[in-house]
């Protein structure tokens, strides 16, 4: 076991944290699969509107790798296939029929084949490119994250309370997929009792919980190498599949944020509707930003939208608190939030939770080379120079500056702190996508 201390970054103390660990139950009628959740997979449908599906049955497969499949989280009927511009598939809506029909998988066959057929393959990510793993490439190592350091993030010890027994099995299955090692990143306060993997503990502020940060501080990715990442909840889900023969699509979601009347945990099925999760918990629905995930990396969803598959958190904050602030950015109000000493709030200390809204407070401007990214990025990467190289799409410089090590989430805190107001995560995502097309 190695102890690693992360010094760069910051913990954002926001209002809306969960204080009661009791778990409620949420029932839902309609569910959705959003193809954008599975980066790198180009969907080709295996169902049409009106088809009856079982939990675990194939909904669509990847155009380039037909063995990569996405499966239904519930038994029911395909209610609608929502398309956007150029007939892009935006979502597949499934209406539950109340039955418990579920597909059973052959867990005695090769682990790779079972994961591909069950759809759990798509719950993992590979680096470089931060995409669903290429089934034809064996990873150097596999990294499992067992905590989340993002704002208002759920506690993994609670998420795995009833599933921790499957984590060991999941690690054993993953170990068969690599010739290298399986790494488990934990907080010193909670270390699961597992064997057959290398356990690293990470102390320090966010983004210590990011897979990219843990990889960079344990065993960095070099050009030509491939590693896989997933979280401990997914690893336990893999273990349960190989223990029972069925994919567990149930999940625990943290409902957080200052716009939520009663922040709490609830048990539901992946892909359920936002309305079923929030109910009457949102204080002012007309002036509320709902985010599927945490406030740094999550996806903005509508009140009538659906929980996105990668996330086990729902955040809600005020859209715009004061449309016309007196003196604007020059205001001295202690209610204004900033991680710098731009306002007088810092005089109150960090103990009082902040209540930021979704207002940008400015527009894009030239990159200010002030070292802001370096203070928020605990990786051996020159952030400002890498962003410039991506914008210019200078492949040689991108490779030299560490493009293969990163994912958009690694720059989420940099984006939050950026006085240039640049959409860094979007820049990283577009750069990785263009680089993948160029190199493949």
- Give the total of beta strands: 19
Shape: globular
DSSP helix fraction: 10-25%
Give the count of structural domains: 2
How far apart lie the N and C ends? 37 Å
Overall mean pLDDT score?
93
Low-confidence stretches: none
Strand content: 15-25%
Question: SSE order, as H and E?
Answer: EEEEEEEEEHEEHHEEHEHEEHEEEHHHHH
The helix tally amounts to 11
Strands across the major sheet, in which order? 1-13-12-11-14-10
Structural class: alpha/beta
The largest pleated sheet is described as: 6 strands, mixed
The radius of gyration computed from the alpha-carbon positions, rounded to a whole number of angstroms, is 21 Å
Characterization of the model:
The structure is a single chain. This protein has 440 residues and is an alpha/beta fold. The protein folds into two domains: 2-244, no CATH class; 372-439, no CATH class. The protein is built from eleven helices and 19 strands. It has helices at residues 111-118, 156-159, 164-175, 211-218, 232-244, 274-278, 372-376, 383-392, 395-400, 412-417, 424-439; strands at residues 2-5, 23-25, 30-33, 43-45, 52-53, 58-62, 69-71, 76-83, 89-96, 125-127, 141-145, 182-186, 198-203, 227-231, 250-256, 264-269, 288-292, 299-301, 313-318. The strands form four sheets. A six-stranded mixed beta sheet has the order 1-13-12-11-14-10. Strands 2-16-15-19-17-18 form a six-stranded mixed beta sheet. β15 (250-256) and β16 form a beta hairpin. The chain starts with a strand and ends with a helix. The model has no long low-confidence stretch (mean pLDDT 93).
